[in-house]
Protein: PQQ-binding-like beta-propeller repeat protein
Organism: Oerskovia douganii
Amino acid sequence: MAPRRREQDAHAVELVEVTELDDDFDAGSGPTGPPSAAGSRRARPQGPRPPSTPRPVDRSDERSVQDPAGPGQEDAHDPRRRWHVPGLVVLGAVLLVGGMGASLVAGGAIERERADRVAAQVGGLWPVADEPVPVWRAPTGAAWPAAVDGQVVIVEPGGVVTARDVVTGEEVWTADLPTGTTTCGPDLLDPHAAGSPLVCVTARGETAGTGRPDDGFPLLVTVLDRTGGTVGSRGLGDGVLAAAPLADGLVATASRGDGGVVVTWEGALDGAATRSRALEGAQVPTDAVGSPGDGEAAGTPGRTDHVELMSMRGLLHVRTVDASATFDAAGDRAGERLRSQGPPGGWADGGALAGDLSVRVSTDDGSGQGDVVDVLGPDGRTRLRMPGEPFVPEITGGVPPRVVVVRMPGFTGYDVVSGRRLWHREEWPEVLWLQTEDVVVVESGSRLIALETGTGRELWRRWLTTEIVRAFTDGDSLLLVTSGDGFDPPPDPTSTGVVSMNLFDGHVEWRQTFDGERHEIVAAQGMLFAVTRSEVMRLGRGSRGSKWET
């Protein structure tokens, strides 16, 4: 659930309940009762055994020789038989309890695996507490926080880098870097932050390329481990105009090239180049989140050496005096992506599909939009052709989808494994916010509509009058970040609201408003954060150690 920047290009809507919904649900349960009683035993006759006349042994019935009491009868004086029925009852009870325990353990493991899967996605969260409150907060020093596994990293003025535990906010380590302006990455929202080392770039020279009297390098790259220890450092040589830290131990550099600026992705310490791109053609300048800037010039007219690099949410933003561009982690221009193809890595952008399938999108030369989607088998042969453009969710449930949605005309759900068209609706939704195995949530006009993924049956809808900025999910709830409190137009333009809705029936579970300084509500490492220009705040919710922790 389209790579559009929803922070600025959002649809004006207010969440208004269409019907009153009962928050209480009866949990259906199957019939229960005590275990079946054991069958009755036949009582052995009492008193002396009557005399019998000797008879020949019938070899066809060996039991008459082995069991004088006859079939179905027991010798009450045989101690080996006294425990038989009670023992079976005890054994059955043990097996029943053991089976229930095993089922609970298996169910817990499945639920934990599901929570892991959801939280690992972009926009995914661990189960969120009702009306979450700040768990911890810390000043950011006006710099956007960075992150490595289990830690939020804050760069303070003067080159002091502090890492805090992502769950508790406790200080884990501090490190002192050379004096200058330092930026560390990957940033808090980078989807590739997991497993990445911390890379910091310090700008020490007032003018790029002039050097410094100590070592001659105006830009210094430093790599730190998870304890704050220095792994290594490298000075960037002459001709490097700017640099920005990236995930996966990389750094982006900008240098002069033939006729323009060349951006290179290279190893932070060894400088080994992995790819490079030339910045060609003037475009409308954008800010760090890909939105139009404030109109101020990126540099002084006539200067060709002014370059700004910034990495945010896994995208590299490049701006020069007369041009700008945004690149994804693979080095592709993000602006060239189809608007309906969703975030990088969606099923229309090389992401996984059920059945080890893939897609090929054919675009219309005139509009640049996809008009045919071919589903390809593992052998590369076309298995299914779907007319329309891919409609990819902003957030998912974390599993390769079996059902995909395309638009034009209307929007249609297809089962890519069987090749069947499952459902079709005569609407033109703007955004597919979320798709799980059970529910699809789209924004269409001034409505939020939830459909059953496999049938297209409408589950619920709500009218909207505030701006939806972005969405998150923990697998059971849909969290919407809006301007205002999610129900009324915001009296304060800086007000930000969070509304949590039940994914399956649409009823509002809780809502919270952040007034005053503008808050950026984000999901990182499976947790909910509010970030301002001056501080980062973790909002109360579950964690990996205890997913119900608040």
Summary: The first strand starts at residue 134 and ends at 139. The helical segments are 63-66, 79-82, 84-119. The mean pLDDT is 75. The CA atoms of residues 36 and 353 lie 47 Å apart.
